[in-house]
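Below: protein 1.
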Amino acid sequence: MTWTLNTLATWCGAEVKPQEKDISVNHITFDSRKVQEGSLFVALCGQRVDGHDFAQSAKEKGAVAVLVEHPVDVEIPQLVVENTAKAFGAMAAGYRKSLPISVVGITGSVGKTSTKEMVAAVLESTYRTSKTKENHNNDLGLPMTILSMEEDTQMAVLEMGMNHFGEMAYLTSIARPNIAVITNIGTAHIEFLGSREGILQAKMEIMQSMDDDAVAVFNGDEPLLWNLKDSEVHKKYYFGVENTACHVVAEDIQPMDGGIRFRVRGFGQEFEVFLPTEGMHTVYNALAAITVGLLRKVKPEKIQIALSNFKNVGMRQKISVEKGMTIIADCYNAGPESMEAALHVLGDHKTEGKRIAVLGDMLELGTRSQAEHYRIGRFAASQADLLYVYGTNSDRMITGAVTGGMEKSCCQHFTTHEAMAEKLRAVAKEGDVLLFKGSRGMRMEHVLQLFLEDHQG
């Protein structure tokens, strides 16, 4: 993974001095703290920090060149471009095009990261595979992921996120997926995209820069995606549970202690899969991974092993036992679809104790916010014994829960994390099951942390 400065300049449209063309670059970063010997430092212009101010620091840490929007007063080779962020993306596009790899691009309203991890786990069983680290799925994270790939990579699994029109088109122009996966069409970011049809339109931008022989892998239980099956652009393969006309179908789904088991039928194959995760939504994530794996000729027995050893990442549905209580920590983010799925997990969890839903606001729902919080509250009434909510919109969950049959004394709205944790300390007992979930900005993991800290001896 070494480039000449001339190669990088060619990719991003910059000029380089003749005597600097053969300088070797082995690392590219826009974070001055991560500069190392041989780095190209990308000076981004942020709202609060201007990367140009760190050019001297980057040189002192070993940078061999800088990418800038105007010359800086530092004795170091400089590639000057109009927009360093776009140039960063252009370099990633150039590197991706130079590699003989197959790229799987993954998007959807919910489940992107878990699906990405499952797809990567399946492909890693057969190919040298790179994947998006954490949730680096935006206009900076995606290029960073690509430019970090080793030259011998065979498969790249890239998560691609967006919340406005045009953003996915930009990402796909860089990644150029050979397989485009759309997990579902929900209501996340509907505030900016107007409707589920608008969300579909924005997600479908992932197809814009794909080669003619590239294919799509879609959720066939989603009518908005199934209705695209006869469109002429790109071959489409579908996975599903309810729609048995899909290419890959899950059957005989059986929730079990510590996971879920089901049979897969598709592409002339039939085999059993065990997932060490809970909830029907994880079956869909696995089906996407299985479909990609079978399309790339991964043997069923390798798919079985990869998925049976799957472990989720970050703050996504971590189930543990603390002080005799089962904790379902799913604090990374939340929308109506993922909130409903998490409540399903809570309701299906076997226990002789109480089921306690500890929920925060779902953000970026626009004019649908009140209705969606109310609907989730009604559903929570059928899955939880107690409902504790936090945030400016979540009081509508209580209204929905009471309408759905939950006693008002079993619901409470909180304005601080501390008050919420204090209430949990008073009511949660050994044998109870607690679900913690909310949008990223609600920081529900902090409530969990406060609650667990005060339960430690």
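Below: protein 2.
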Amino acid sequence: MSASLVELHDVNFAYDSRPILKGINMSFQKGKLIAIMGLSGCGKTTILRHIGGVLKPTKGYVKVDGQVIHELDPQGLYAMRRKMGMLFQFGALFTDMTVFDNVAFQMREHTDLPEEIIRDLVMMKLHAVGLYGTQELMPGELSGGMARRVALARTIALDPMLIMYDEPFAGLDPISLTVVGELIRRLNDALGATSIVVTHDVQESLKIVDYVYFVSNGAIIAEGSADDIRASGEAFVKQFVHGEMDGPIPFHYPGNDFNTDLGVHA
């Protein structure tokens, strides 16, 4: 079994008195592609923010490459983040920069490489995501799927050891979704990286991941391989994976009693 690049041990987090994460324990092995799934608002993105050092746990710790993230000084945290890549939801490209300048941004910001080397590297990254030849286009000239792939090229610009994806499939058509999913898998393996995909797109994710953590209400309620999750008897997981209307996830907002409000009695 390969060593873990990222470990979360008994991580708790709260905004004021409102608990968000409740005793989270996770291990992300080197070279693996792992999904964190669950409903919107369940704590998935909050977990990514802890791994990136944006948030500090109220209890427990997060280790990346053997270092406790919240114990790093600003210089140490900055150095650690240079080893990470982040694909934000909807790509978050700089709209006033060309495709080339978007991908080159991190190279110019974090290295002293000459422009001719940067150019070669940018073209290699664009080729890796199937967009060689788009370097002079502006983000507004790209389709949604193309923009997501440019964002992916920017994410891997510095060959990170850890790549995090926050809802990478959001808003994509079925073909673009499949293309991006396959790229995430292929790039993870080619780079020898560890990848964490936060998503609620169940079917596409289960095609590509090695392991899944299922989060509900700030706690892990299931984990395992894609096959384990598909076969799970846990009612919440079963409802979520199969998109069933009936189950522990309610249709109505909690406390909503339409009949009572109308003065209707059952």
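The chain has a mean pLDDT of 86.
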